[in-house]
């Protein structure tokens, strides 16, 4: 672990944050895991997939239902008997009541139910992978936003140091002007440079506050919550591409989700093919019946008992729809395979790109560390010469700007290195979540 301290200030850093609470990265990650709405939604979606994964949804269990049928009629009825005589009754009442419990169980459907059960289990696993992907994405955003704030604090520290120097230049120029050793122009130039630095600090503070709002949004808390972040950046300088690539192939949640999508398509094809086979059902129940009639040989009857039976159906012809459905399912399997291949290629491309950025930024960090030290030394010498009046204010301003630019480049290099590391770990599925 390479630890790079924050030492870019020439003078005492006067940007005071004492009234604010320090938010550590670990605390920010914990808050995001607890509060972030996208993570909560993804977690519920994963629970839905887990709930749906059961034998009943797969069609493997029987259904049991209670039934009640009550029919009544009131008609004018005329009946002709076998001997030719007629019987007539107006407003003849008829009543029929059937109630009981019935069981319906599909015991064979071409093994489609087993494919559905496996598909439900795959969808549950896919939901977990998608949840993990959402968590990594949002936590990655927290990491990047947090370290963006660290970088901005460093930039503000650099600008603040420039303001300290510019204030000293104004004071010196004012004293020299008062005793007639400097022109009014020198004093005005110093004042303009001071105002320029103050304006730059105000603009940077605005960016800093907006980034705070963004982080508070990711943490799903009051957007106006005030805080400060650490003032140091730590990153690993020994990441290896082949190891990251291997981890990504095994752990990248988006890739794992796509692998499961391909499996779902395979199982869907298996279900469609199952429609070619017979379907066998068992039915059973226990019923109570009762009927009444105002006219007829039997005016009242009742009964109770078990009913049971077996039914089977075999598809013979359905307008070639079966062939078309299987063809469509095969195309869906092919598309899933194409998307999987595309996902693998895109993942490898991202890994290669981020790793190249990581290596470049590691080198830039070393260079900018040297540049800050050189610019600091140059500024110290320039200020010493300025105090004894051997150089112009333009040379002081140039040295001052060179130091500020070197400090900002250094902070940017640190942030970009950390950004590359975070992106690589997100793709490899190794980004710390605690």
TrEMBL record:
Keywords: Cell outer membrane, Membrane, Signal, Transmembrane, Transmembrane beta strand, Transport. GO terms for cellular component: cell outer membrane; efflux pump complex. One of its GO terms (molecular function) is efflux transmembrane transporter activity. Pfam families: OEP. Residues 1-19 form the signal peptide. Residues 66-82 have a biased composition (Low complexity). It is found in: Cell outer membrane. Residues 66-85 are annotated as: Disordered. Belongs to the outer membrane factor (OMF) (TC 1.B.17) family. This is TolC family protein.
